[in-house]
Write a sequence for this structure.
């Protein structure tokens, strides 16, 4: 009985706090009403479809996992082909995307999965680093090979880059070829990003009617532009393509969506995850998190662990360290600043937690990231 009353008091305190102030880091900072007002203004300034997307819990789930998987200078190209054609892609990328804009073709992901036919608007996501083949027919032998570093050669290693260049990020043997394919790849970094491929099959293909295929026209238009900052534009378009494809894939009734994705749709666990994601530096306890989700501590712990696969505080600790690892790659970030941003009192506390969870110190992690 005393425990129940205590939990009720904590829930009331949480609601009062939410009504009057922004959640603060556990060191105790003053209220920031202006910051809350700015957030509200930014939200109200968005178009309805933008607000809907930003509030979609499933999009939030993907965004969290993609924080480390975001495209950074990823290769994005238009390829033009005329039958017979086949190209073997062995660039070593951990995650690749291929979309058919016009014409027809096949994707051959390897010896085990069967070849899959592709029509205009279809998109394939392929889990690397194993090579795959794009071709006009399953039995066409590749006469071109895409190597690491975006180099295109013949099967015996003759460089073909100059001969195949057709313009900005465009290659092929003829600008009038009937088949147009868009390709892009991701270079995944960190624990968050590395979890993504493990949740995917070797190849997934969505038909044009199953996802927002209109995005392909935008990408095809942007790929050939060579304006300042264009690489950043293409990186974000690649992010958008991948999120759109994965949302559609995981939403299929027969799809075996990963636990981190399903958890976001749960009314209790999804709420708890959003609180942790939005305010990672707050001094969360199981009790305060349960109050925010409107359930008991035991109920939250049981439900959270069942869906996410680990207890709430374990998840929060790992997420804080994932965030710290990402922030530490910034050249001007100090250990103390990063510590406060992710919920630790000082650099010493962050260093101890970082070493415990990752096996290396923040300095060692930063040095390795710089070398990579």
């Amino acid at each position: 009985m005393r425990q129940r009353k205590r939990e009720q008091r904590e829930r009331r305190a949480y609601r009062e706090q939410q009504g009057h102030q922004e959640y603060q880091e556990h060191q105790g900072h003053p209220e920031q009403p202006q910051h809350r007002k700015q957030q509200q203004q930014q939200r109200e300034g968005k178009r309805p479809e933008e607000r809907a997307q930003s509030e979609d819990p499933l999009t939030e789930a993907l965004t969290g996992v993609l924080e480390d998987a975001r495209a950074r200078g990823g290769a994005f190209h238009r390829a033009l082909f005329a039958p017979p054609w086949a190209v073997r892609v062995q660039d070593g990328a951990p995650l690749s995307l291929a979309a058919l804009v016009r014409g027809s073709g096949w994707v051959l992901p390897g010896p085990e999965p069967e070849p899959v036919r592709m029509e205009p608007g279809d998109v394939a996501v392929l889990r690397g680093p194993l090579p795959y083949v794009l071709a006009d027919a399953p039995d066409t032998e590749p006469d071109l090979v895409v190597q690491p570093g975006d180099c295109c050669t013949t099967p015996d290693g003759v460089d073909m880059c100059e001969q195949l260049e057709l313009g900005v990020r465009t290659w092929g043997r003829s600008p009038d070829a009937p088949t147009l394919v868009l390709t892009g790849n991701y270079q995944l970094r960190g624990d968050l990003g590395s979890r993504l491929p493990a949740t995917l099959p070797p190849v997934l293909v969505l038909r044009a009617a199953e996802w927002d295929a209109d995005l392909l026209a935008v990408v095809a238009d942007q790929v050939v532009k060579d304006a300042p900052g264009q690489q950043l534009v293409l990186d974000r378009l690649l992010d958008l393509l991948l999120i759109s494809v994965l949302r559609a894939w995981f939403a299929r009734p027969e799809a075996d969506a990963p636990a981190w994705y399903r958890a976001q749709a749960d009314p209790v666990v999804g709420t708890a995850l959003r609180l942790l994601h939005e305010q990672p530096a707050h001094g969360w306890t199981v009790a305060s998190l349960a109050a925010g989700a409107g359930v008991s501590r035991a109920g939250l712990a049981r439900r959270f662990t069942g869906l996410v696969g680990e207890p709430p505080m374990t998840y929060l600790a790992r997420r804080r360290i994932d965030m710290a690892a990402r922030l530490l790659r910034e050249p001007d970030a100090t250990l103390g600043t990063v510590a406060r941003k992710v919920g630790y009192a000082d650099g010493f506390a962050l260093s101890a937690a970082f070493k415990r969870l990752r096996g290396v110190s923040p300095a060692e992690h930063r040095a390795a990231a710089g070398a990579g």
